Amino acid sequence: MSALLEFEHIIQVNDLTRPELTVLGRDVLWQGLVYRASYPDHFNPALNCRLEPDNDAHFIRYIEVGELELRDEVTLVPMQEIRTLIDGRTQPMHAESIATIEEPEPGQLFVRFSYKRDSIGVEGGLNADDFLKEAYLQQDREAIIVIRQMAADNQLVCNSGH
To answer: Could you tell me where the DSSP H helices lie in the chain?
Structure first.
């Protein structure tokens, strides 16, 4: 069994001290996060994705990365969090993620991204896990930017489904 890499980061969505930024509502942010979970290839063109609908709170997605196809189980806790699981017992790797909406004050939205996955470790004297953490952080930052743009373009419809 390989070592697990666990890490998390928080991204601020609404900065109430910057009036030039549009304030996103929790429902719009939620729809953007669900869209990202449903269509990760919209946020990362290197991926190919197809969905197998289950119900409003759960679906399966198949993600192709090069020659590798991974099966993700996605669980939605409406308006709160999205959990994904690639089960390492039945697939080439193990990975879990949770995106949680946090609102310490009304309108002050953050998303906490938590990850647990197989460690890559050290390769060629470089700590590949550090690069992986930075890549996840960058992808999550960019996802919030895309969600903001989708909201500005009225591409996010507010309802509780996916």
So the answer is: 26-38, 40-43, 128-152
Question: Is residue 147 within 8 Å of residue 41, measured between CB atoms?
Answer: no
| Residue labelled with tokens 């930024």 | 21
Average pLDDT over residues 73-78: 96
Paired sense of beta strands 47-55 and 4-12, if any: unpaired
CATH number of 4-152: 3.30.530.20
- Nearest CA to 97 out of 1, 3, 9, 2 is that of 9
Contact 122, 18 (CB under 8 A): no
Residue 86's φ and ψ, nearest 5 degrees, are -110, 110
Q: Which residues pair with 77 in a beta bridge?
A: 81
The mean pLDDT value of the chain amounts to: 89
For 34, counting Cβ atoms within 10 Å of its Cβ (0-12 exposed, 13-18 middle, 19+ buried), the class is buried
